[in-house]
Amino acid sequence: LGTPAEALDPPLENDDFIRALNFPETAEDEAGFASLRRALKDRQAALVVRAAQDILTLLSQDGIYMDDLHPAPTGADLWRRFAKGERGKAVDLLGGIKEQHDLSAISIRMREDTIFRDSVHHFLRCFDQFLVTFEENATDTDLLELAETRTSRAFMLLGRATGTFD
């Protein structure tokens, strides 16, 4: 009585969430679409997924695609420290995407486009809040796989552009 339907669903597995944050690889990626559907049924996961979809779409309008970016590898311990609140030079390596052309394009667009700027800040907030919760139950492997997703690359890029890692 009074229990929402989503409360009866099993909790979202880390593997599904990570796959959803990378988004389906192709139109034929059935496993990717299944993970995305499961993530969108989870209220907290859906916030991050939708914010990521929005920001990836906005970035693509400037020709910035996450598959073209190659961040410097980082360890799971660095992600854990960031999730626990460390900022600045201690976690600077998380901003491992340093493609100057993309960073400049983002900076210009943030100054000129308030919708883009608001979307960037919303995405960064959603990702940051999600990471705090995710990290608590994530293995080091989960964190390293998360770091390879398109969503995490967007976080690294936008975090670098906004000074999150300075």
Tags for this model:
166 residues; mainly alpha; globular
Structure description:
With 166 residues, the chain is mostly helical. It is built from 8 helices and no strands. It has helices spanning 14-22, 30-41, 43-60, 76-83, 100-112, 114-137, 140-147, 150-162. The longest helix has 24 residues, at 114-137. The mean pLDDT is 91.
In short:
With 166 residues, the chain is mainly alpha-helical. It is built from 8 helices and no strands.
Topology:
Elements: H1 14-22, H2 30-41, H3 43-60, H4 76-83, H5 100-112, H6 114-137, H7 140-147, H8 150-162
Helix percent reads: 55-70%
What is the SS-derived class?
mainly alpha
Element-level helix/strand string: HHHHHHHH
Overall body shape: globular
* Beta-strand percentage range: under 5%
Give the N-to-C terminal Cα separation: 50 Å
